[in-house]
Amino acid sequence: MATREEVIEVLKKINDPEIMIDVWTLELIYDVKVKDGKVRIKMTFTTPMCPYGPQLLEEVKAKISEIKDVKEVDVEVTFDPLWEPSQELRATLGV
To answer: Which of 8, 21, 4 is nearest to 85 (CA)?
Structure first.
């Protein structure tokens, strides 16, 4: 059975194409739920007008679908709240 931890490990390998840091570290993932082979992810983009948003969304779905025993992947994109990097992330990004 797929686990939340397995999903998170995959998310840590998916880089935002613009910033080249993984979506987990960038804090773009707001929630991950795994139940009976169904994965539900709530995420955001760095900006609502992110030109790479559709590409990133498809990559998340595709990579999570590769996890053993995952039958369905649902990714909800939200901008509530808008993404804002934490102080720790700002230090990492140098901003």
So the answer is: 21
Closest by alpha carbon to 63, among 21, 20, 23? 23
- The region of weakest confidence among 28-32, 65-69, 82-86 is 82-86
- Domains in the chain, ordered, with CATH? 4-90 (3.30.300.130)
Single pTM value for the model: 0.92
Instruction: Tell me the pLDDT tens digit for each residue of 10-37.
Output: 999 999 998 899 999 999 999 999 999 9
Distances (CA, A) of 89 to 19, 33, 58, 84: 12, 24, 25, 9
Peptide bond into 17 cis (omega under 30): no
Taking the C-alpha atoms of residue 8 and residue 87, their distance in angstroms, rounded to an integer, is 22
